[in-house]
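Quick sanity check, Capsule polysaccharide export protein:
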Amino acid sequence: MQQILPAETTSPVAEHLPQLPIRNFLFLQGLMGPFFERVGARLRRDGYGVYKVNFNGGDWWYWAHPGAINYRGDARQWPATLRRIIASRKITDVLLFGDCRPLHRTALEICKELHLPVHVFEEGYLRPDWVTLELGGVNGHSTLPRDPDYYLRTAAMLPPAGKHFPVPSSFRRRAFEGVIYNAADLLSRGIYFNNWTTHRPWHPVREGIGWLRKIGRGKGARSRSTALEAKLKTLDGRYVLFPLQLDADAQVRMHSDFADIAEAITTVISSFAAHAPVDLRLVIKEHPLDNGVKDWKGLVAEISARCGVAGRVDYMEAGDIAAVVCQARGIVTINSTTGTLSVACGVPTITLGRAVYNIDGITHQGSLDTFWTAPTPPDPAVFGAFQRVLVHSCLVPGGFFSDEALETLVSAAIERLERHAPIAHRARTAPSSASSHG
């Protein structure tokens, strides 16, 4: 395995990058699984230079190609090392998943200084069957405008949308790939990647125990959720849904004013208790990928009792989010992509954080306190235009958790990367060999 040790200084390389005869792609961290490995394989096949920085054993496990660079320094040494990698490999493009991880934030700052394009992947603004791929940043860091007229004008100039095909996805596969990644990470700590510190707030062992606890109560949770879904169908839409996001999600911690999910739950229930009509119910739904480390059900019950609305607040542990969303009177979210699902169903939606779809004509622009009694419905024309622009500019079809979905996604991502080419000349020269996965 090749190792790049931290370097103290290096010279900027931005001035000559646009004249390079070939694009050299540098991959940083991806989603747990083989997605980046497959994109890298296709780029290498097409004659591009491909390199990958591995920060831990999980990254290393999911990269089987030449071009591996195993970084063993710490966060303080990372900026100088990244500059050295960019210069020595003549990097023209950087790819990463999620722009809020500390090492990725540093990389974005350096690439901005060096005028290098950064292709940022994230789970799709529209789901399912879409993945976000945006230049420079996603979510709260996106450069997408918040002007409804922009989307109406731009969508009118776009060519007709192609037919979109749904792709399969397997939660079992997602869980399995996560287990493999975390196991490889844990086994390599203290042995090889001595300085690696995860961006996640919990140790993998603690998360594993949480998942085991959640799996153990799975049958009961499904039974309770089925009963609640049947109850909601009898309410004739007299409920508002608040779908929880993951407590460690950067969408919450960096793109909202909430410190964590607990604070958000307290805010929503308190406002509901003070301002909602007495015949309205609040349904709080657990995120399907919540790791079970925190007892959200217990917290919801505690806060609801304290606010005097325990008899009007329901907690849903599992179930079909789409059906529950489309029957609701309204949706309260921090900035979840569930908000785009609700708007597509014509359900009034309010965001409490920074979201790319928080646009006049799409979401309620008033306060949370006013939302309970006078929610603003979405304008189908504005949201339709927003969708068209989103798909054209920063979404690619496919998914991560089936072979069919991955094949669709990899092909679409390569096509989009070609469209994002920073240089006019696209000569196909095979990249020089670098050390392999192992």
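Posting the structure with no commentary besides this: Residues 1-20, 423-438 have pLDDT under 50 and may be disordered.
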